[in-house]
Design a protein that fits this description.
The complex is a heterodimer of chains A (117) and B (116). With 117 residues, chain A is mainly beta. Chain A has strands spanning 3-5, 10-14, 19-21, 24-26, 32-39, 46-52, 59-61, 64-69, 74-79, 88-96, 105-107, 111-116. Chain B starts with a strand and ends with a strand. In chain B, strands 2, 4, 5, 6, 9, 10 and 11 form a seven-stranded mixed sheet that branches. Chain B has strands spanning 4-7, 10-13, 19-25, 32-38, 45-51, 57-58, 67-73, 76-81, 90-97, 106-107, 111-115. With 116 residues, chain B is mainly beta. The chains are: A mainly beta (117), B mainly beta (116).
């Protein structure tokens, strides 16, 4: 069975601080995908990144960066110089490709990030 | 990029009535669509997987007679909440996949259901 754990339920930072959101996953699949989504108060899911299990390179996109460590089954997300607009709930998710169900996602519990001015 | 449209975005209904939510893939053929439910301050939980032209596969604990899913075409899946009750009030969101196991899938905007 697949499982995604986001241990931090809520994080509060002051604007311009860096913040890291943790994500640990469990899967028996040898090939899988990891995702991060942002969910603002309006509810829609905003896609941030998809990472293939064979690609362990870290990625940076503007103020966002991701650290994929297969050895520890972690896929952490860092926001540098946080801004108030970053306030949202962030979900880490996992998709296996060997489950004959296309791209079904297993979501973590989410981390609510509050960035104060 | 690919777009999935969900309608309605918000619906309020009386207890005992049925509500239909539509999920459309606008620029690709979605062989598989997924329906998730999200209660306030909780994560998204998969309700069912629907494949075009066949019966939906429901997750454990989800009543298939209450949550009717129809995936009659490659671009449309519908979720009907029958005889809705206040405890069915939730955020329902669909995602669509072209079927290729590339990890690529697209989410609708979500539908917030409030049952009075």
């Amino acid at each position: 069975a697949q499982k995604v754990t986001q241990a931090q339920t809520e994080i509060s930072v002051v604007e311009k601080e860096d913040v890291t959101l943790d994500c640990v996953y469990e899967t028996r699949d040898t090939t899988y995908y990891l995702f991060w989504y942002k969910q603002p108060p309006s509810g829609e899911l905003v896609f941030l990144i998809r990472r293939n299990s064979f690609d362990e390179q870290n990625e940076i996109s503007g103020r966002y960066s991701w650290n994929f460590q297969k050895s520890t089954s972690s896929f952490n997300f860092t926001i540098t110089a946080s801004q108030v607009v970053d306030s949202a709930v962030y979900f880490c998710a996992l998709s296996g490709v060997n489950n004959n169900a296309g791209n079904m996602l297993t979501f973590g519990g989410g981390t609510r990030l509050m960035v104060k001015p | 990029g690919a777009v999935v449209s969900q309608h309605p975005s918000r619906v309020i209904c009386k207890s005992g009535t049925s509500v239909k939510i539509e999920c459309r893939s606008l620029d690709f053929q979605a062989t598989t669509m997924f329906w998730y439910r999200q209660f306030p301050k909780q994560s998204l939980m998969l309700m069912a997987t629907s494949n075009e032209g066949s019966k939906a596969t429901y997750e454990q604990g989800v009543e298939k007679d209450k949550f009717l899913i129809n995936h009659a075409s490659l671009t449309l899946s519908t979720l009907t909440v029958t005889s809705a009750h206040p405890e069915d009030s939730s955020f329902y969101i669909c995602s669509a996949s072209s079927g290729a196991n590339t990890g690529e899938l697209f989410f609708g905007e979500g539908s917030r259901l409030t049952v009075l």
